[in-house]
Protein backbone atom coordinates (compact mmCIF):
# COMPACT_ATOMS: atom_id res chain seq x y z
CA UNK A 1 0.00 0.00 0.00
CA UNK A 2 1.32 3.42 -0.98
CA UNK A 3 1.49 5.93 1.87
CA UNK A 4 2.99 9.38 2.17
CA UNK A 5 5.67 7.97 4.46
CA UNK A 6 6.59 5.08 2.16
CA UNK A 7 6.74 7.41 -0.85
CA UNK A 8 8.92 9.87 1.05
CA UNK A 9 11.22 7.04 2.16
CA UNK A 10 11.64 5.83 -1.41
CA UNK A 11 12.44 9.35 -2.62
CA UNK A 12 15.11 9.58 0.09
CA UNK A 13 16.49 6.21 -1.01
CA UNK A 14 16.94 7.34 -4.62
CA UNK A 15 17.98 10.86 -3.74
CA UNK A 16 21.64 10.31 -4.75
CA UNK A 17 20.38 10.06 -8.34
CA UNK A 18 18.84 13.56 -8.14
CA UNK A 19 20.48 16.99 -8.44
CA UNK A 20 22.36 17.98 -5.29
CA UNK A 21 21.09 21.17 -3.65
CA UNK A 22 21.37 23.30 -0.54
CA UNK A 23 18.10 24.84 0.60
CA UNK A 24 17.22 27.31 3.37
CA UNK A 25 17.17 25.93 6.91
CA UNK A 26 13.64 27.13 7.56
CA UNK A 27 10.66 28.52 5.72
CA UNK A 28 8.11 31.26 6.19
CA UNK A 29 4.40 30.48 6.29
CA UNK A 30 2.24 32.70 4.09
CA UNK A 31 -1.50 32.98 3.55
CA UNK A 32 -1.51 33.71 -0.18
CA UNK A 33 0.81 33.90 -3.16
CA UNK A 34 -0.19 37.54 -3.36
CA UNK A 35 1.89 38.02 -0.21
CA UNK A 36 5.06 37.31 -2.21
CA UNK A 37 4.04 38.54 -5.66
CA UNK A 38 6.64 41.32 -5.52
CA UNK A 39 9.39 38.75 -4.92
CA UNK A 40 9.22 37.32 -8.43
CA UNK A 41 8.46 38.02 -12.05
CA UNK A 42 7.41 34.47 -12.91
CA UNK A 43 5.30 31.92 -11.03
CA UNK A 44 5.71 28.29 -12.05
CA UNK A 45 3.10 25.76 -10.97
CA UNK A 46 3.23 22.03 -10.61
CA UNK A 47 -0.09 20.51 -11.69
CA UNK A 48 -1.06 17.50 -9.56
CA UNK A 49 -1.66 18.55 -5.96
CA UNK A 50 -1.29 22.26 -6.74
CA UNK A 51 -3.70 23.10 -9.58
CA UNK A 52 -5.67 19.87 -9.70
CA UNK A 53 -6.17 16.50 -8.06
CA UNK A 54 -6.91 13.97 -10.75
CA UNK A 55 -9.60 15.43 -12.97
CA UNK A 56 -10.72 18.00 -10.40
CA UNK A 57 -9.53 21.61 -10.36
CA UNK A 58 -8.50 22.80 -6.90
CA UNK A 59 -10.89 25.56 -5.87
CA UNK A 60 -9.51 29.04 -6.45
CA UNK A 61 -6.59 28.02 -8.67
CA UNK A 62 -8.02 29.74 -11.75
CA UNK A 63 -8.69 32.94 -9.80
CA UNK A 64 -5.16 33.03 -8.37
CA UNK A 65 -3.50 32.67 -11.78
CA UNK A 66 -5.67 35.48 -13.12
CA UNK A 67 -4.73 37.75 -10.20
CA UNK A 68 -1.02 37.12 -10.73
CA UNK A 69 -1.35 37.95 -14.42
CA UNK A 70 -3.02 41.25 -13.54
CA UNK A 71 0.01 42.04 -11.38
CA UNK A 72 2.25 41.51 -14.41
CA UNK A 73 3.64 38.09 -13.47
CA UNK A 74 4.50 35.47 -16.06
CA UNK A 75 2.68 32.17 -15.56
CA UNK A 76 4.07 28.75 -16.41
CA UNK A 77 2.81 25.25 -15.67
CA UNK A 78 5.58 22.70 -15.32
CA UNK A 79 4.19 19.19 -15.23
CA UNK A 80 5.64 15.70 -15.26
CA UNK A 81 2.50 14.36 -16.94
CA UNK A 82 3.63 12.60 -20.12
CA UNK A 83 0.58 10.50 -20.96
CA UNK A 84 -0.65 12.92 -23.62
CA UNK A 85 0.96 15.25 -26.16
CA UNK A 86 1.37 19.00 -25.76
CA UNK A 87 -2.00 19.83 -27.27
CA UNK A 88 -3.55 17.27 -24.96
CA UNK A 89 -2.00 19.04 -21.98
CA UNK A 90 -3.42 22.40 -23.09
CA UNK A 91 -6.84 20.86 -23.65
CA UNK A 92 -6.81 19.19 -20.24
CA UNK A 93 -6.09 22.38 -18.33
CA UNK A 94 -8.65 24.32 -20.34
CA UNK A 95 -11.19 21.58 -19.67
CA UNK A 96 -10.46 21.83 -15.95
CA UNK A 97 -11.22 25.54 -16.10
CA UNK A 98 -7.75 27.08 -16.37
CA UNK A 99 -7.23 29.62 -19.11
CA UNK A 100 -3.70 28.82 -20.29
CA UNK A 101 -1.99 28.90 -23.66
CA UNK A 102 0.37 26.38 -25.19
CA UNK A 103 3.47 28.44 -24.53
CA UNK A 104 2.65 28.63 -20.82
CA UNK A 105 2.84 24.84 -20.40
CA UNK A 106 6.05 22.81 -20.34
CA UNK A 107 5.78 19.06 -19.91
CA UNK A 108 8.25 16.29 -19.23
CA UNK A 109 7.05 14.73 -22.48
CA UNK A 110 8.29 17.81 -24.34
CA UNK A 111 11.74 17.34 -22.81
CA UNK A 112 11.78 13.59 -23.43
CA UNK A 113 10.98 13.80 -27.12
CA UNK A 114 13.73 16.37 -27.64
CA UNK A 115 16.13 13.69 -26.37
CA UNK A 116 15.20 11.14 -29.03
CA UNK A 117 17.94 10.27 -31.48
CA UNK A 118 17.45 8.33 -34.69
CA UNK A 119 16.56 4.68 -34.42
CA UNK A 120 13.64 2.42 -33.68
CA UNK A 121 12.16 3.20 -30.27
CA UNK A 122 9.92 1.06 -28.13
CA UNK A 123 7.20 3.31 -26.75
CA UNK A 124 5.46 2.54 -23.45
CA UNK A 125 2.31 4.64 -23.50
CA UNK A 126 -1.35 4.83 -22.53
CA UNK A 127 -3.62 2.77 -24.75
CA UNK A 128 -5.49 5.89 -25.87
CA UNK A 129 -2.31 7.80 -26.74
CA UNK A 130 -2.14 8.09 -30.53
CA UNK A 131 1.60 8.94 -30.37
CA UNK A 132 1.27 11.48 -33.18
CA UNK A 133 4.15 13.57 -31.81
CA UNK A 134 6.84 10.86 -31.77
CA UNK A 135 9.57 12.18 -34.13
CA UNK A 136 11.35 8.85 -34.77
CA UNK A 137 10.38 5.35 -35.87
CA UNK A 138 8.71 3.40 -33.08
CA UNK A 139 6.91 0.30 -31.92
CA UNK A 140 4.29 0.34 -29.19
CA UNK A 141 5.61 -2.04 -26.55
CA UNK A 142 3.10 -4.51 -25.10
CA UNK A 143 3.58 -8.24 -24.47
CA UNK A 144 5.72 -9.54 -27.34
CA UNK A 145 9.23 -10.37 -25.99
CA UNK A 146 10.70 -10.26 -29.51
CA UNK A 147 9.74 -6.61 -29.85
CA UNK A 148 11.54 -5.75 -26.59
CA UNK A 149 14.72 -7.22 -28.06
CA UNK A 150 14.23 -5.62 -31.49
CA UNK A 151 14.15 -1.91 -30.63
CA UNK A 152 17.14 0.43 -30.18
CA UNK A 153 15.82 1.96 -26.96
CA UNK A 154 12.70 2.63 -24.94
CA UNK A 155 10.59 5.69 -24.13
CA UNK A 156 8.41 5.32 -21.02
CA UNK A 157 5.57 7.85 -21.22
CA UNK A 158 2.79 6.30 -19.16
CA UNK A 159 2.34 3.50 -16.65
CA UNK A 160 -1.47 3.35 -16.99
CA UNK A 161 -1.40 -0.04 -18.75
CA UNK A 162 1.99 -1.24 -17.51
CA UNK A 163 2.20 -4.50 -15.60
CA UNK A 164 4.75 -6.40 -13.56
CA UNK A 165 4.95 -8.98 -16.36
CA UNK A 166 5.89 -6.26 -18.85
CA UNK A 167 8.34 -4.75 -16.39
CA UNK A 168 10.10 -8.11 -16.06
CA UNK A 169 10.22 -8.50 -19.84
CA UNK A 170 11.82 -5.07 -20.05
CA UNK A 171 14.43 -5.84 -17.39
CA UNK A 172 15.29 -9.19 -18.98
CA UNK A 173 15.71 -7.64 -22.43
CA UNK A 174 17.85 -4.77 -21.17
CA UNK A 175 20.14 -6.95 -19.09
CA UNK A 176 20.67 -9.11 -22.17
CA UNK A 177 21.38 -6.06 -24.33
CA UNK A 178 21.82 -2.68 -22.63
CA UNK A 179 20.12 0.19 -24.47
CA UNK A 180 18.89 3.66 -23.46
CA UNK A 181 15.64 4.03 -21.55
CA UNK A 182 14.07 7.50 -21.48
CA UNK A 183 11.70 7.94 -18.56
CA UNK A 184 9.20 10.58 -19.62
CA UNK A 185 7.80 11.20 -16.15
CA UNK A 186 10.30 11.18 -13.29
CA UNK A 187 7.61 11.08 -10.58
CA UNK A 188 7.33 7.97 -8.45
CA UNK A 189 3.64 8.60 -7.83
CA UNK A 190 0.85 11.06 -8.57
CA UNK A 191 -1.94 12.06 -6.15
CA UNK A 192 -5.35 10.98 -7.41
CA UNK A 193 -8.90 11.21 -6.12
CA UNK A 194 -8.51 7.66 -4.80
CA UNK A 195 -4.94 7.88 -3.43
CA UNK A 196 -1.67 7.53 -5.36
CA UNK A 197 -0.89 6.01 -8.73
CA UNK A 198 2.50 4.54 -9.64
CA UNK A 199 4.18 6.62 -12.32
CA UNK A 200 6.99 5.90 -14.83
CA UNK A 201 9.67 7.18 -12.43
CA UNK A 202 8.85 4.32 -10.08
CA UNK A 203 9.51 1.74 -12.78
CA UNK A 204 12.55 3.61 -14.06
CA UNK A 205 14.26 3.51 -10.70
CA UNK A 206 13.46 -0.18 -10.40
CA UNK A 207 15.39 -0.65 -13.66
CA UNK A 208 18.39 1.11 -12.13
CA UNK A 209 18.06 -1.01 -8.99
CA UNK A 210 18.22 -4.12 -11.19
CA UNK A 211 21.39 -3.13 -13.03
CA UNK A 212 20.10 -1.33 -16.12
CA UNK A 213 22.83 1.14 -16.97
CA UNK A 214 21.44 3.82 -19.28
CA UNK A 215 18.23 5.08 -17.69
CA UNK A 216 17.60 8.78 -18.33
CA UNK A 217 14.96 10.67 -16.36
CA UNK A 218 13.04 13.62 -17.78
CA UNK A 219 10.92 16.12 -15.92
CA UNK A 220 11.30 17.51 -12.43
CA UNK A 221 13.78 17.48 -10.72
CA UNK A 222 16.09 16.80 -13.70
CA UNK A 223 17.63 19.69 -15.67
CA UNK A 224 16.31 19.48 -19.23
CA UNK A 225 12.73 20.53 -18.51
CA UNK A 226 13.95 23.59 -16.58
CA UNK A 227 16.20 24.59 -19.45
CA UNK A 228 13.22 24.46 -21.80
CA UNK A 229 11.11 26.58 -19.44
CA UNK A 230 13.79 29.21 -18.92
CA UNK A 231 14.19 29.59 -22.69
CA UNK A 232 10.53 30.64 -22.88
CA UNK A 233 11.29 33.63 -20.64
CA UNK A 234 13.07 36.60 -22.16
CA UNK A 235 15.96 37.72 -19.94
CA UNK A 236 14.26 36.76 -16.69
CA UNK A 237 16.58 36.46 -13.70
CA UNK A 238 16.29 32.87 -12.44
CA UNK A 239 16.28 34.23 -8.89
CA UNK A 240 12.97 35.92 -9.73
CA UNK A 241 11.26 32.64 -10.66
CA UNK A 242 9.04 31.13 -7.96
CA UNK A 243 8.13 27.45 -8.12
CA UNK A 244 4.95 26.24 -6.41
CA UNK A 245 4.81 22.49 -5.83
CA UNK A 246 3.69 19.78 -3.43
CA UNK A 247 6.82 17.60 -3.39
CA UNK A 248 10.15 18.21 -1.69
CA UNK A 249 12.05 15.78 -3.89
CA UNK A 250 10.77 16.88 -7.29
CA UNK A 251 9.44 20.44 -7.09
CA UNK A 252 11.71 21.85 -4.38
CA UNK A 253 14.94 20.05 -5.31
CA UNK A 254 14.50 20.77 -9.01
CA UNK A 255 13.72 24.46 -8.59
CA UNK A 256 16.42 25.03 -5.97
CA UNK A 257 18.98 23.44 -8.30
CA UNK A 258 18.22 26.24 -10.80
CA UNK A 259 18.42 29.01 -8.22
CA UNK A 260 14.65 29.55 -8.21
CA UNK A 261 12.64 30.47 -5.13
CA UNK A 262 10.22 27.84 -3.87
CA UNK A 263 6.79 27.44 -2.30
CA UNK A 264 5.63 24.15 -0.79
CA UNK A 265 1.87 23.63 -1.18
CA UNK A 266 0.64 21.29 1.53
CA UNK A 267 -3.12 20.69 1.55
CA UNK A 268 -3.95 18.60 -1.52
CA UNK A 269 -0.81 16.83 -2.72
CA UNK A 270 1.72 14.37 -1.41
CA UNK A 271 1.69 15.69 2.16
CA UNK A 272 -2.06 16.12 2.51
CA UNK A 273 -3.01 15.58 6.14
CA UNK A 274 0.59 15.61 7.40
CA UNK A 275 2.83 18.15 9.11
CA UNK A 276 5.35 18.96 6.41
CA UNK A 277 7.93 20.32 8.87
CA UNK A 278 8.63 16.74 9.97
CA UNK A 279 9.52 15.75 6.41
CA UNK A 280 11.60 18.90 5.91
CA UNK A 281 13.65 18.04 8.99
CA UNK A 282 14.14 14.40 7.96
CA UNK A 283 15.28 15.32 4.45
CA UNK A 284 16.96 18.64 5.27
CA UNK A 285 14.97 20.11 2.40
CA UNK A 286 13.11 23.37 3.01
CA UNK A 287 11.17 25.66 0.68
CA UNK A 288 11.38 29.43 1.00
CA UNK A 289 7.66 29.63 1.79
CA UNK A 290 4.84 27.29 2.75
CA UNK A 291 1.07 27.62 2.35
CA UNK A 292 -1.92 25.24 2.24
CA UNK A 293 -3.13 26.04 -1.29
CA UNK A 294 -2.29 28.60 -3.92
Explain how this protein is built.
This protein is α/β, with parallel strands linked by helices and 294 residues long. It folds into 2 domains: 4-109 and 221-291, 3-Layer(aba) Sandwich (Rossmann fold); 111-217, 3-Layer(aba) Sandwich (Rossmann fold), CATH 3.40.50.1000. The chain has helices at 4-13, 61-70, 86-96, 108-114, 145-150, 164-176, 200-209, 223-231, 248-257, 276-283, and strands spanning 28-29, 42-45, 52-53, 56-57, 74-79, 105-107, 120-124, 137-140, 153-156, 181-183, 189-192, 195-198, 215-217, 241-245, 261-265, 289-291. Helix 3 (86-96) links the parallel strand 5 (74-79) and strand 6 (105-107). The protein is globular. The protein starts with a helix and ends with a strand. The mean pLDDT is 96.
End-to-end distance? 29 Å
Order of SSEs, N→C? HEEEEHEHEHEEHEHEEEHEHEHEHE
**The CATH fourth-level homologous superfamily of the largest domain:** HAD superfamily/HAD-like
The assigned structural class equals alpha/beta
Structure summary, number of beta strands: 16
Task: Explain briefly what this protein structure is.
The protein has 294 residues and is of the alpha/beta class.
Core attributes:
about 290 residues; alpha/beta; Rossmann fold; 2 domains; seven-stranded parallel β-sheet; five-stranded parallel β-sheet; about 30% helix; globular
Q: Mind sketching the topology for me?
A:
Layout: H1 4-13, E1 28-29, E2 42-45, E3 52-53, E4 56-57, H2 61-70, E5 74-79, H3 86-96, E6 105-107, H4 108-114, E7 120-124, E8 137-140, H5 145-150, E9 153-156, H6 164-176, E10 181-183, E11 189-192, E12 195-198, H7 200-209, E13 215-217, H8 223-231, E14 241-245, H9 248-257, E15 261-265, H10 276-283, E16 289-291
Parallel strand pairs: 1-16, 2-5, 2-14, 5-6, 7-8, 7-9, 9-10, 10-13, 14-15, 15-16
Antiparallel strand pairs: 3-4, 11-12
